[in-house]
Write a structure and sequence with these properties.
CATH architecture: 3-Layer(aba) Sandwich
Number of domains: 1
Shape: globular
Distance between the termini: 9 Å
Order of helices and strands: EHEHHHEHEHHEH
Number of strands: 5
Largest sheet: 5 strands, parallel
Oligomer: single chain
Helix content: 40-55%
Radius of gyration: 16 Å
Length: 192
C-alpha cells in the first residue's frame, strides 16, 4: 500500500506520515531524494536520473532542483525515486506530495492520497516552533506568507484538494488528528 500526504507548508503532513509510520509504514518524503541527490548520498537507490553538483539542501535549492528534475524526467520523478528508496518495504507513506502528477502517480499504483490543511496563522506558528533548517529564511508572518504564496503559484497545492481521496483539517489537538488519521487507516485497510 502506498499513501501520499499533501498539503501546504507546516499543515501537518509529516505528523500524519509519522502516524502511518507508527503503524508499520516506511516513511519517506518527496524531498528526501532531492536532499540525497544534492548531498550525493545515493546508495539507497537502484537508479538515479543524474547526480548534480553538490549543494546545500536549502528550501530554495530543493525547489529549484525539484523543478529541474520534473521538467527533465517527468512530473512523477520524485514519487518514482521515493518508492525506489523504500522498495524493500511493503507499505510506504510518502510525505510532501506536491503536484497533480505526483498524486496521479500514487493513484496509478493503487495508492491513496490525503490532503492535510490548516489555516495560515496556525501553520506559521508551527513553522516557528519546529525551526527546521530549510525554513531559516522565514522570520516573520510576511516572510511565511511570501513563501506560502510562492509555493502555491509553483505547485497549486490548494487545487489538489479536489483530486485526493481524503481531506484532514489539522487545527485541533494531536489526539484529534490521531483519531482522524486512524479512521482513514481503517477505511484503507477495508479496501484491501
Amino acid at each position: 500500500m502506498i499513501v501520499g500526504v499533501v498539503g501546504k507548508i507546516a499543515a501537518g503532513k509529516t505528523t500524519v506520515a509519522k502516524l502511518f509510520e507508527e503503524r508499520g509504514f516506511c516513511r519517506v518524503s518527496c524531498s528526501d531524494p532531492l536532499v540525497d541527490l544534492l548531498t550525493h548520498n545515493v546508495s539507497a537507490y537502484s537508479w538515479i536520473p543524474e547526480l548534480p553538483q553538490k549543494r546545500e539542501p536549502t528550501r530554495e535549492n530543493l525547489i529549484e532542483f525539484g523543478r529541474y528534475l520534473k521538467e527533465t524526467y517527468g512530473g512523477d520523478v520524485l514519487i518514482r525515486l521515493a518508492i525506489d528508496r523504500m522498495r524493500h518495504c511493503e507499505n510506504i507513506v510518502i510525505d510532501g506530495v506536491r503536484s497533480r502528477e505526483e498524486v496521479e502517480a500514487i493513484k496509478r499504483l493503487g495508492g491513496v492520497v490525503i490532503y492535510v490543511e490548516a489555516d495560515p496563522k496556525t501553520r506559521f506558528e508551527r513553522l516557528m516552533l519546529r525551526r527546521a533548517g530549510k525554513d531559516r529564511t522565514i522570520k516573520s508572518f510576511e516572510d511565511f506568507k511570501a513563501m506560502d504564496d510562492a509555493e502555491e503559484r509553483l505547485y497549486r497545492t490548494s487545487e489538489l484538494k479536489g483530486v485526493v481521496d481524503y481531506v484532514v483539517v489539522n487545527e485541533g489537538s494531536m489526539e484529534e488528528l490521531r483519531r482522524k488519521v486512524e479512521a482513514i487507516m481503517a477505511k484503507i485497510k477495508g479496501r484491501g
